[in-house]
Backbone:
């Protein structure tokens, strides 16, 4: 097979993807444009790039660029409560290898299956290894949108999932993972959290539909860093209860309490949603935790009524030396 | 200014862009997603990546990555007859420099102005220099679409613009350009054609609206290579009249007739539209040329009734040695 045939084989022949593409488009892959049809409302759009050697380790297998890239993009749809429809992929490759394309495309379609979305089109070019995803999600035609600017005084602060696992996985990449090791299961769970983000798609749609939920944000740059965006955009303070933060169990097993809490508060790559809701709101979902409240203020985040930065500094003094104090992932760090 | 502020300054502060974004979105830049609203019909989507050092020379100024990237993406919308609405940008940068960002963003918004479209959102990450554009265009809610598969027997073949200029510019990058040179104007025109693609947006919308126009394609991979897609997808032959091909005048001034014709037939980066229309169709636009006809066949392209490949080989024998016989731009060439 030549290079064009390889690309076509790995990206265009997936039967389930063709079916899904057909259900949301009039023209799918293979013409100048994809034509999305049946658009009944508004369309949420988000773009994310994964750079090999930066957002995934240089030694990462092909699939990581797919599962992490698509997961992080879908996470933005979830935070706006949009129902994921599909995505386009701009893939830049230094060379075409069938082994690499097989690993990448299998992981891509596995992730697409998880979200029930279709690869709608894209561009494959030669160059340094990067993958940019643009995802599309449906929103109702009218009604309020779940932005980061709409928190209300008296709201409770909530977060989905458990936190810190992906950040806790970072030091594990260089370590051998043997099933005989005592901490094997916990370490595997952290690595899986890093490699396979699973943003809570159904929860997002449910939050969007409930007018008592006011503001929401994707917390993948770190819980504190992202909740600070809600605080700033809404011009209100957020106070979090440290003891209520849902630290990932595997993280607690492998790290000391302060270290685990640090990862849960400031580690990146938790593709979960942080949101605020009326105090009368509740949910029958043990994967959603109430972690604080919205108070009058100027747009700051507090932990146990201490400014978040100062609280983190204090926590850091209890850690072994050299621990970073970063309060969120810096794209240009 | 820190890096975040620089990015915000150069991409989010443009007043005209904010106005345009506001007119097509409920939520623009700065939240987890952009929310496109007022969607009355179908949405055409296309993605293109520009890799620095590959799609533009390594010595190219920042603006080339903007003008060429956005132009090539909009060209795909034009070929489907969609009315351009906006785009997202995934920009990967090795470092943040205000000079580079200034040059890039100015060229980006100049190109966006040309098409009347808004930068709706994006992602800036650190890594090797590449820019991926995903463009959005509006199409009527119902009715036929202008695909490459719908040519009809007896149609005439048409092409917009003049051809070959961008391909003719490639050898000029390494040569000094002095206004005192005899061929200064012609060389400048070729370079401008390469740097500033200008896909015919209004023509695209007009072709889409006219049911006598049947099939269309963006010819930026080369006239012959792209018309071959129409032939193959429509399962009909296309015969072109060599003497009718609209060779760019500046190209004719700088190159021999066979060399200029070779560029016009097989050179890439002409962001124009090739299309077929009922023989009764005509247009009052001297920038649109009738160049051939659709005949019964198996999906081949002919020039003056000779198979295109053989015709090109014959033309090549009249050229100085070493001339490439490529019949279209190969992304993985």
Residues:
């Amino acid at each position: 097979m030549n290079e064009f045939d390889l690309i076509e084989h790995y990206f265009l022949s997936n039967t389930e993807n063709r079916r899904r593409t057909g259900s949301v488009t009039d023209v799918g892959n293979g013409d100048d444009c994809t034509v999305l049809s049946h658009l009944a409302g508004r369309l949420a759009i988000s773009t994310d790039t994964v750079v090999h050697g930066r957002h995934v380790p240089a030694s990462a297998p092909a699939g990581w660029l797919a599962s992490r890239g698509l997961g992080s993009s879908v996470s933005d749809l979830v935070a706006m409560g949009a129902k994921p429809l599909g995505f386009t992929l701009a893939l830049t490759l230094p060379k075409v290898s069938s082994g690499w394309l097989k690993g990448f495309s299998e992981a891509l379609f596995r992730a697409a299956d998880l979200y029930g979305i279709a690869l709608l089109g894209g561009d494959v070019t030669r160059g340094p290894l990067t993958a940019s995803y643009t995802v599309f999600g449906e929103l109702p035609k009218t009604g309020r949108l779940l932005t980061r600017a709409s928190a209300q005084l008296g709201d409770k602060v909530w977060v989905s999932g458990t936190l810190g696992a992906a950040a806790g996985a970072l030091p594990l990449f260089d370590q051998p993972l043997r099933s005989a090791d005592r901490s094997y299961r916990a370490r595997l769970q952290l690595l899986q959290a890093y490699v396979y983000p699973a943003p809570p798609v159904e929860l997002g749609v449910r939050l969007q539909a409930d007018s008592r939920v006011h503001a929401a944000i994707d917390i993948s740059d770190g819980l504190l860093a992202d909740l600070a965006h809600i605080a700033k955009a809404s011009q209100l303070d957020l106070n979090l209860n440290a003891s209520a933060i849902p630290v990932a169990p595997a993280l607690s097993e492998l790290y000391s309490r302060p270290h685990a809490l640090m990862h849960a508060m400031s580690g990146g790559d938790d593709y979960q949603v942080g949101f605020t809701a009326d105090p009368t709101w509740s949910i029958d979902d043990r994967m959603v935790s109430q972690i604080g409240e919205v108070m009058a203020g100027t747009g700051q985040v507090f932990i146990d009524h201490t400014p978040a930065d100062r609280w983190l500094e204090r926590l850091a003094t209890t850690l072994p030396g050299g621990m970073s104090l970063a309060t969120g992932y810096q794209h240009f760090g």
Observations:
- Chain A has two domains: 3-139, 156-316.
